[in-house]
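Q: I'm writing up a methods section and want to include an example of the input and output format. Could you take the sequence below and give the corresponding predicted structure tokens, formatted cleanly so I can copy it straight into the document?
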Amino acid sequence: QLQLVESGGGLVQPGGSLRLSCAGSEFTLDYYAIGWFRQAPGKEREGVSCISSSGGSTNYADSVKGRFTISRDNAKNTVYLQMNSLKPEDTAVYYCAADRKDYCSGYVVYWGQGTQVTVSS
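A: Here is the clean output for your methods example:
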């Protein structure tokens, strides 16, 4: 039963910060590149960020670059998304996902359940 277990979502004011966590259950995440995606109501799912299995390379959507930081602690079997300077347009359900490769190929094989991030005053 391979699972990605997300936590850290919630309600935050504009300009605030949240840290999302994605932990592997029943499998080791360090074999996979891990990405974060988000989907707002009525919108298509979009890629936010991705990190290679080793943590040696990362990428970000232009909309979050400079505000979000992806990282991983393979010893804890966890990937993080630190979100700073949050904006209302960041409001979405955030999903973590395991890439089929050890680099960010864009082909997802496992999805987390999603965690709600709401940015509102």
